[in-house]
Amino acid sequence: MLAVHHMTPDELNTLQQQRLRRILNQAKKHSPFYREIYDGIDVNTCKLEDLPVVTKPMMMEHFNRFLTVPGLDRKDITEWLSKKENMGKLYQNRYIPLQTS
Description:
By secondary structure, this protein is mainly α. 47% of the residues lie in helices and 0% in strands.
């Protein structure tokens, strides 16, 4: 991370583009939601402004399809979060779910 402080603007831009493409490909490969909304978009060459806007209401409406991890379910997570005995514990012994406004 400290290496970015010594990069030229062109090197930093290249690194940012590589990271963006990795995230977009991961989302398209593992999330049915993103696979659908990115259909027909080349995530390896598109501009950021070419991507459709995703809002929180859209994410929540399509929560189970939005995630890139199979086996997670909004209803189950919400129920798990509602139980005080789960405070400080990992969901499925792996995840830290958070509920925000």
